[in-house]
C-alpha cells in the first residue's frame, strides 16, 4: 500500500496499517518539533499527515487508535525540566487551508448555536505567531511560574528563563488575583540574524529559522543563556482566572495590553467570513514586512459567552481555528538583483529579497535562472508568468518546496513602484570586465575572461579539489578561497608549489587561526600524495564545460595517456580532420562536448595553465578497453547488492572491458547484473526481455571467477 493511495480507496486492513504508520510518524515529528526544537519535516508535510490521519479516522471510526495523533497536543516534558500541571489545559487549534473552509467554519458555529445566516456574529482575527507557546501564572500581581505547553496538560517549568524576557512583566498592577496569561515567545528577523552571526563567530549552533531559535533559547537549562538571547512575547489568550477580563475576546486583549503585555496590533474584529478573508489577505501581504514570523491567521468567536457555549472537542476549541498560509509560498520585496559568475563563466542572476520564512527556512535569496526568465520567457521562448518581467522593487511571490532552491513564482504588478525599470542584463562580466557572450542556442550569457576572471578562477579551483577530482585532504572549498584571496594560489599548478614556492609557507600557515605546524605539514603531505593521479580524474579536475566524471572516463579510456590526449586535442583544433573525427567517434561524446574540450586546449592562457599543472604530475595511464572482451560495446546495468565487489569496482571493471555502464534499464540495455534485493530494475528488464544474470555469472563471463 502506498501513502498516495486515496483514503476512499483503502480497505479496512490497509486503513489499520496506515493509521499505525501515521501514529509513529507524527509521534516522532511531535517530539522533534516540540521537545527537541529540531523539526524533521516541514509544516506542510506535518499538516498533510494530520489531515490524512483525520480522513481515515472519519471513514473508519472504529479503527481510531488509543494513541491517535488527533488526540495529541505537543509532546511530553523533556528530561532536565521540572513539571508544571496547567490549571486549564493548553490546547491546539484546528487548521484551515482554503478560503471556502472559512465559510464552512462560520456555518458550523452558526449551526451549533442555532443562529441563522443573517444573525450577527463577530469574530476576532489575529496573526498566528510562529514561536513557542508559553503560559504565565500571576497570583496577586506576581509572576509565580511559567510553563511551556508540553503535552497540553503538563508543561516544562521555564520560570527563571521567562523572567529574563523584557516583554514579560514580573509584577502587574490591577490584575485579577489569579491570572494565567498565554501567548507566544518569538524572535524577530533582525535579532535572529544577529544571533546566528554571533553563534557562527563562536563556532556554536546556528538555527534554521526564528521559531527554532526562540524555542531553543527559552528551553535552556541555564537561564543565563536565555538572558543572552533576544526573545520577545505576544500575549493573546488566558487560562485560569479569578475574575473575567472582559465580555469579549477583543476586550480581554485590550485588558492584557493595559496590564503591560505586548499584544499584536494587527488583531481586529470582523463580521463574517468575507471580512475574515479580507483581513487574512491583508496580513498575508504584510507578512514579509512585519519583522517576525507568522504562519497564518487565527479566527476566534469574539463573544466570550458564546465561546463558553461552544466549548471544546478533545484537543481543540470549537470557537477558534487557524487559517494557515501555503507552506511553500510567501510574498516579499525584491530589493536587488545581483549577478554571480560561476566556474564555467555563466552569469547567474540572483534575487536579493527582504527575508521571509518559506517552508520552515528563512529565505533572503532566490534564483532568477537567466535573462529570459527575468523577461518573462522560458528556455524555449514561451511566455511564463503571463509575460510579466521581474524588476528591482517588485512585490514577488517566492516558491520553495523541499530542498529545491527558492525561486520567484509571480509578480504583483499592482504594487510595482512607478520608478521601477526593466532589468538590464549585463553584457560584460561584473568580476573582470570581459565581454559576456551568449552563444546561439545557449540560455546563459558567459564571461569570456577565462582564467583572468577571479570568479571563474576560484570556482575552478574549488572544483579542482572536489571529491570527484583531486580530493586533497585538508584542502576544501573554504581553504581554496582563503588561499586565493591571500594570493597564494591563482591556478591549480600553484597548489603543488605551495611547499617549495613558499619557503616560509609552513610558518605563514602556522600563524593563521585554525592552523598549526602539524596541520600545515599534513596539508603539504596530502598535496604531494595527489601528484600521482589517474588520467580520468585529471581530465575531470580541469573543469571543462560539458565534461563530467563519466565523459572524463570515456576520454581517458579512448586516449590512454595524458600525452596522447593532449596531442589529440591540439590536432583537433580546426574542428575537422582525422583527430576531430576520432574524437567524435567516441560513444557518448557529441559535438558540443567535443567543441568545448578542444576549445579549452586551444585558448593560449588556459593551455599554458594546463601545461604548468601537467608538469607537476605523474599521470597514470588509463587501461584501454579490451575490444575482444565479451561485453565490449554492450550497455550494462548493475542492481541490487553486490557481495564480491563494490558498485564502483564493478563499474570500473565493466568500463575497462569496453562496456558502457548505465544507471537505468531501457530498451538500449544489453545486460542486467542483479544481486540480492534487486527490485524495479529487474522487473523492467524482464518486461523488456533483457538478459539478466547474477554476480557469479557476471564474474564468470568476464573471466574474474
Q: State the separation between the terminal residues, measured CA to CA.
A: 41 Å
The CATH homologous superfamily of the largest domain corresponds to DNA ligase/mRNA capping enzyme
Please tally the β strands and state the result.
Answer: 24
CATH topology of the largest domain: D-amino Acid Aminotransferase, Chain A, domain 1
CATH architecture annotation of the largest domain: 2-Layer Sandwich
Query: Which consecutive residue ranges, at least 5 long each, have pLDDT under 50?
Result: none
Radius of gyration, taken over Cα atoms and rounded to an integer in Å: 32 Å
Q: What is the tally of helical segments?
A: 26
Q: What form results from the Cα inertia axes?
A: elongated
Brief rundown of the structure:
It contains 26 helices and 24 strands. It is of the alpha+beta class.
Detail the topology: elements first, then pairings:
Layout: H1 12-35, H2 43-59, E1 83-85, E2 94-96, H3 99-113, E3 122-129, E4 132-139, E5 142-148, E6 154-156, H4 159-162, E7 178-186, H5 189-202, H6 210-218, H7 223-227, E8 232-241, H8 249-258, E9 268-271, H9 273-286, E10 294-301, H10 304-310, E11 320-324, E12 329-341, E13 347-358, E14 361-367, H11 371-375, E15 395-399, E16 407-411, E17 436-437, E18 446-447, H12 454-464, H13 477-485, H14 492-495, H15 498-501, H16 505-510, H17 517-529, E19 532-534, H18 535-541, H19 549-559, H20 562-571, H21 578-584, H22 591-602, H23 604-614, E20 618-620, E21 635-639, H24 647-656, E22 660-662, E23 671-674, H25 680-688, E24 691-693, H26 695-701
Parallel strand pairs: 2-11, 19-20, 21-22, 21-23, 23-24
Antiparallel strand pairs: 1-6, 3-9, 3-10, 4-5, 4-7, 7-8, 10-11, 12-13, 12-15, 13-14, 15-16, 17-18
Helix pairs in contact: 1-2, 3-9, 12-13, 18-19
